[in-house]
UniProtKB/TrEMBL annotation:
Belongs to the bacterial solute-binding protein 3 family. This is Transporter substrate-binding domain-containing protein. Residues 1-21 form the signal peptide. SUPFAM superfamilies: Periplasmic binding protein-like II. InterPro entries: Solute-binding_3/MltF_N. Keywords: Signal. The keyword Signal applies. Residues 34-176 form the Solute-binding protein family 3/N-terminal domain.
Length: 271
């Protein structure tokens, strides 16, 4: 059995008596306030807006999932992505969204249905283009990574073996260093990278190329959250919510426009 499944099964075994004994009525659920945080560096999927609110497609899905049930969704966030993960682990945050990894499954439970597919690209200085032939072939380069970010267990292991891996607190630091040729590459989502480059005025200073990493964003509940007993119900509800093939693409386009409009920018960029 895979190690991540063993960890998840063990955590569920430990939590099951508490979950089974909980009052899982809709009336009780409707009295709850669910605290949410997210990754600040992946617009339009996930970012923190100027009002210090977690925003984007994933937060919209959480609200669509919970608010019709009478749940109050608190999206206030004044912390980094790394801190968001820690607050989920501590139980101070109830829900978040992200890639499913073995390490995260030790302290949170992911809902079954994936929300959105994410392709990871490498961004590089325009004068020093890269070819992607595998993560091991890039080990001699200066790589910038957002603290708390993950690209799946296998890629994370390869990155952690790099001798010149540089961790930063914000993706802005990475992209500015990249444009100034102080980094050789930054792995991140294609659309979020383009939006951030547009926001920072770095058009024409960077390029990008697709990697072999394609993963999915999932919603997750802290294993310390009082929301956890409703997991089976929320799984069913989320599956129905995402059943329409138009739901997520429409949200992506809506929140892309919201992000660009909030910055007062022209939203045109090339593939």
């Amino acid at each position: 059995m895979r190690a991540d499944l063993v960890v998840a099964a063990f955590c569920w075994f430990i939590l099951w008596p508490k979950v089974a004994a909980a009052d899982t009525s809709i009336e009780t659920l409707s009295t709850m306030t669910v605290r949410v945080c997210g990754n600040s560096a992946y617009p339009p999927v996930s970012w923190v807006n100027a009002d210090q609110q977690a925003d984007g497609v994933n937060v919209a899905v959480i609200k669509m999932l919970l608010e019709p049930l009478g749940v109050t969704v608190d999206t206030h966030q004044d912390s980094s992505w790394r801190r968001c993960l820690k607050e989920v682990e501590l139980g101070n945050i109830d829900m978040m969204s992200g890639f499913k990894t073995e390490a995260r499954q030790a302290f949170m439970t992911f809902l079954d249905a994936p929300v959105i597919r994410e392709s990871i690209y490498l961004y590089f200085p325009i004068d020093n283009p890269l070819e992607f032939k595998g993560w091991d072939t890039l080990a001699g380069l200066r790589v910038g990574v957002l603290r708390g970010d993950s690209f799946g267990d296998e890629v994370d292991a390869a990155l952690n073996a790099y001798p010149t891996l540089e961790y930063v607190s914000t993706q802005d630091q990475n992209l500015l260093k990249l444009a100034d040729n102080r980094l050789d590459m930054v792995p991140m989502g294609k659309l979020s990278g383009q939006l951030d480059i547009l926001r920072l005025g770095l058009q024409g200073k960077t390029g990008h190329i697709q990697t072999d990493v394609v993963d999915f964003w999932y919603l997750a509940i802290s294993n310390r959250s009082p929301l956890l007993p409703w997991l089976p119900f929320l799984n069913e509800r989320l599956t129905r919510l995402l059943d329409s093939p138009e739901t997520v693409p429409e949200l992506v386009e809506r929140y892309r426009r919201i992000y660009i409009a909030a910055l007062g920018l022209n939203g045109d960029f090339s593939d």
